[in-house]
Amino acid sequence: MKVLIIGSINTDFVVTTNVMPQIGETVFGSDFEILSGGKGANQAVAAARLGAEVSMIAAVGDDEMGRRETKILKQENIDTTGIYIKNKVSTGVAVVNLSQNDNSIIVVGGANVALSVDDIRQQQAKILAADVILCSLEIPLECVVYACHQARKYGKHFILNPAPAQDLPDELLLNATFVTPNLIEYKQLYNLQADADIQTHLLNNSNDNYIITCGKNGVLYKQNNQLQYQNAFKVNVVDTTGAGDTFNGALAAFFDLSLKDAIYYATAAAALSVTHKGARNGMPFIEKLKNFINEYQ
Predict the structure, then answer these.
(1) How many CB atoms within 10 Å of residue 158?
(2) Which member of 110, 151, 232, 267 lies 3.0 to 4.6 Å from 218 by CB, making a disulfide possible if both were Cys?
């Protein structure tokens, strides 16, 4: 599959401490890592490792972080010619403080927020060449709406990963081929209060284009006006960071299969992703995924 990711690129600065600092307090940290991130870049890596031909439309700053992230994406066999270098803003940054199995995160959108509709318009050849276009919400909403419109105009499949959660126009939700929220995001989209409300709402929703990831409880979706379930794979969970990005990238990579099979493989890929620390360290290559599924069966 030819997959086009229109999304974010970040550098993550991760600090581990024994106690979470209070306002005005200085504490000693025990570990520090610089990791590659951004939902768009993570999804691109996940799809590329599973054999998809992946290109990106994105933006970084004219700084060392941007050059580093672009180089890493090239090494993952991702076409980076659609990545713009924006002046006067930094590459997107997430500062993550890990402490006592909890975290606090500060995200600076930087160049991600500077991506424009005109930038995407100039990359029309990439849109025309794609089989599937995948977007999440760490870039301006108008870029996502435009990308969805272009996908519909040219008969391309469009996957919307509505994360981070925010209010979205009906035209976007209705025109996406699939919308892939997790449980929390689905509840926020429709102001639902309890997990039990989700199944009723999904069943009564006239659209069959929602695929809801439910963590350890697998995946819930509707097909032919009936609820369908994909059970989660049982693995040793180390870090769930990036599991959703892996699922979405894999769903795009396997889009030429039946919906049931694409969700099955995407769920397996997401399961493998949580067996290592970090968003990308556990993202499987295609051979590892095949071996995992064969052994699991």
Answers:
(1) 25
(2) 232
- Please tell me whether residue 181 adopts helix, strand or coil conformation: coil
Catalytic positions are 245
pTM for the predicted model, two decimal places: 0.94
Dihedral angle, C-alpha 60, 64, 68, 69, nearest 10 °: -20
Q: Which residues have CB under 8 Å from 8's CB, separation 6+?
A: 38, 39, 40, 41, 58, 92, 109, 112, 136, 138, 139
Give the chain's domains with CATH numbers: 2-9+39-90+110-296 (3.40.1190.20)
Cis before 164? omega within 30 = yes
Q: What is the pLDDT along the chain (297 residues), one digit of tens a residue?
A: 999 999 999 999 989 899 888 899 999 999 999 999 999 999 999 999 999 999 999 999 999 999 999 999 999 999 999 999 999 999 999 898 888 767 778 889 999 999 999 999 999 999 999 999 999 999 999 999 999 999 999 999 999 999 999 999 999 999 999 999 999 999 998 888 877 788 889 988 767 899 999 999 999 999 888 899 999 999 998 888 889 999 999 999 999 999 999 999 999 999 999 998 888 999 999 999 999 999 987
